[in-house]
Design goal:
By secondary structure, the chain is an alpha/beta fold. It is built from eight helices and seven strands. Strands 1-3-2-4-5-6-7 form a seven-stranded mixed beta sheet, with helices on both faces.
Amino acid sequence: MHAEILGSGPRVVLVHGSVTGVRAWTGQRGLAERFQLELVTRPGFPPLPPVESVDFEEHAELLIAHLAEGETAHVVGHSYGGVVALLAAAQTPVRSLTVIEPPAYGIARGRPEVEELVTRFARHWTDGPRDPRAFLAGFLAGVGAEIELDDPLPDWLEQGARTLMVERPPWEAEIPFDRLRGIPALVVSGGHSSSSDAVCDVLERELRAERAVLPGAGHSAQRAPGFNETLTAFLART
């Protein structure tokens, strides 16, 4: 796991999701005026080499090791990185936990919209196209992410797509709520997807978390208007 460190102040560790790597946090770099930002790059994403598989449990262990390298940190995770952040925070001290639309669909099974999405994604991973660009396009349509895909993909995005293709399905994650309760938590969604809302509803209830719905950027709610202000206010309270 690679970390880019910006600024100084309270420690905030940002854990990206699938595909785009630390580019997911472009809009948060300005927060380095108030915080020490640590933009961690998970295995499989540039500048790290490609990998043959991605497992949220293994990445949680790597995040735990990184968190142990300094003072207790605020942790912010987006998408797959949100699942990693939830698992890590259950096993090591954190100052607070913010998750942005983590695809922990397993906690909301039985909801029709969640079952439909899990079925669609399972089929996509098993029977979907093996061309990285076509695979990525199908995935983005499912999560409501709005990204224009170049043809051919730039190298960094092709690597992100290939890493996506070897991910362990995030709905297999078992979230240990009993070990997360008591951690100050913020759950953020983009107000665009009933399946994501269902997951965030469960997290809000089970973690007794604060909740923010920030429309305008789809699945990447950290790019929505008001996100930085919402996050900064939350961190100031914890």
